[in-house]
Amino acid sequence: MRQTLEREIKLRAETGFALPDFPGEPLRERRFTSTYHDTRDMRLAAAGITLRHRSEEGSGLWQLKLPHAKGRLELELVGNAKAPPPSMRDLIAGVIGRRALLPVATLETRRRGLRVLGGGVQLADVVMDEVTVAGDGAVLQRFEELEVELIDGDLEELDRIQQALREAGAHDTDDRPKLFQALGLERTRPVPIAPEATPLEHLAAMLVAQEREIITHDPGTRLGTDPEDLHQHRVAVRRLRALLRAAEPMLDNEWAEALRRELGGVGRALGAVRDLDVLLEHLEEVGEELELQDDEAFQRVIGVFEARRAHARAVMLDELRKPAYALLLDRLERELPDPHASGESVPLAEIARDEHRALVKTMRKLGDDPEDDVLHAARIRVKHARYAAELAQPAVGRPASRYINGAKRLQDILGDHQDATVARAELKGVAKLLDDPEVSDVVKRLRKHEKQRKKDSREAYPAAWEELQARGDAAWS
Questions:
Q1: What was the pLDDT predicted at 426?
Q2: Does the first or last residue of the chain, that is N or C, have fewer Cβ atoms within 10 Å of its Cβ?
Q3: Per CATH, the architecture of 2-183 is what?
Q4: How far apart are CA 474 and CA 477, in angstroms?
Q5: pLDDT at residue number 193
């Protein structure tokens, strides 16, 4: 499956618009037909995902576009128009659930344009699309779009080209994808929760936000090319579990605990892969710092962890493909907007204050030289306090925001300590597994680095905790 990261802008140009005198070469005029597929309730469109079959000059191509932090990730696979390829359908299975995919719109496009060159580099394509929306043998709609898509240029080049087009008469256009324009769809945007909303309404909004994050990052997790998707997927699952726990007084206990158990299984599957991602990335950085990259023994160590990650990823994908996971996603979508309540209304600041007080008790028990597992438990408690603060932030404002930032800092420090602890243990196990003097020497150097990392974290966390405690006193007093 071919993958391309799209970085583009779209503008509108009126009749008679002429492209500026960009250095470059004209593109061959193209005509193609795009048939868009979605569920009846437009699940893909709501998630910002596009699935279409494009036919041009007798050939066919399936294209799947996924949201990405730096643009849109386009996946392409040659195939006929009969049905979406199973590999693409698998990537969006978490979004569409058990719903059927069907054609929802057919667009015919005439494309003309210019490939902009600079310094011997293909910077970007500037194209004008004339789009016709067809249906039942008739033309339903026509519109034009001016599009700039980077090839080997950077964002500065994109801005420069955009500015030149605006100076030539181009202007802002409808920022919706072609399918949205064709069907008259609007982008789904989160509605801010009013400060005067009830605690349960605030909670429901945050629960729904986490469910949307899970859906947004599920395809990227399955694809596996960007570790950030898996990270954000896991964070959303963990935050959702933590919010259900923190808001326990307001919720039906049996309902909340059942959801937390189901989410816990998903979180463990995601976490096994994510933890190895973090470990591998860190070891590669340390290997470069210690000049071990070309050492065969170091690469053997990396190879062990890569094999473990491959196995953990296979287990994770099995979990995401289970009917139970699809049922869980359906349940989250259906029930989180109106969570099962206990009938008791608790101020969100009170929930955050209780979590902070529990954190204070935990930190006071640490002593001068706490065991590794005790510090790990403290980190989990910090995370609970942070998520409770995020729940209360819309109602409390800046003091809660300052507390959240302080909790993130302490969580990062304790997280470094835990990561170093795990790395030392895992490295020791690999040295024993491989049983090779050269590997043992490399592992010894790596474990020494992690020992220092632990020491640095232990020295840093008291000051971070002191600051967080002061912010907690200010926010929740």
A1: 96
A2: C
A3: Beta Barrel (2.40)
A4: 6
A5: 78
| 3-class DSSP state of 370 | coil
Residue 72 CB contacts under 8 Å (≥ 6 apart), including other chains: 5, 6, 8, 65, 66
**Other C-beta atoms within 10 Å of 442: how many?**
25
Q: How far apart are CA 210 and CA 244, in angstroms?
A: 11
CATH 1.10.3720.10 for domain 199-476, yes or no, is no
Question: Which residues contact residue 432 at a Cβ distance below 8 angstroms, ignoring those fewer than 6 apart?
Answer: none
pTM of the model: 0.89
Query: In which residue are the tokens 């049922």 written?
Result: 327
pLDDT number for residue 415: 96
Contact 385, 407 (CB under 8 A): yes
Closest CA to 161 of 111, 205, 127: 127
Cβ atoms of 107 and 132 closer than 8 Å: yes
- Residue 136: per-residue pLDDT: 67
Q: How far apart are CA 251 and CA 338, in angstroms?
A: 11
One-letter amino acid at 187 equals R
- Residues 349 and 396: beta-carbon distance below 8 Å: yes
Point out the residues of the chain with pLDDT beneath 50: none
CA distance 224 to 218: 10
Close Cβ partners of 396 (under 8 Å, ≥ 6 residues apart)? 348, 349, 352, 475
How far apart CA 195 and CA 448 sit, in angstroms, is 51
**Which residues touch 182 (CB under 8 Å, ≥6 apart)?**
36, 105, 107, 131, 133, 140, 141
The pLDDT assigned to 367 comes to 86
Q: What's the pLDDT at 134?
A: 78
The whole-number pLDDT of residue 172 equals 87
Judged by DSSP in three states, 45 sits in helix
d(CA 388, CA 248): 11
DSSP string, 275-306: HHHHHHHHHHHHHHHTT-TT-HHHHHHHHHHH
Query: Could you tell me the CA-to-CA distances from 472 to 113, 349, 363 in Å, in that order?
Result: 58, 11, 13
30-38/102-118 β-pairing: antiparallel
Give the other-Cβ count within 10 Å of 108's Cβ: 15
Q: Which residues contact 105 (CB under 8 A, 6 or more apart)?
A: 35, 36, 133, 135, 179, 182, 183
3-class SS of residue 136: coil
CB atoms closer than 10 angstroms to residue 217: 25
From the list 331, 338, 314, 294, the residue with the least C-alpha distance to 205 is 338
- CA atoms 84, 87, 90, 92: torsion sign: negative
Q: Is the Cβ–Cβ distance between 112 and 31 less than 8 Å? A: no
* The predicted structure's pLDDT at residue 98: 87
The region that residue 459 occupies, defined by phi over 0 for left and psi between -120 and 50 for alpha, beta otherwise, is alpha
pLDDT score, position 395? 83
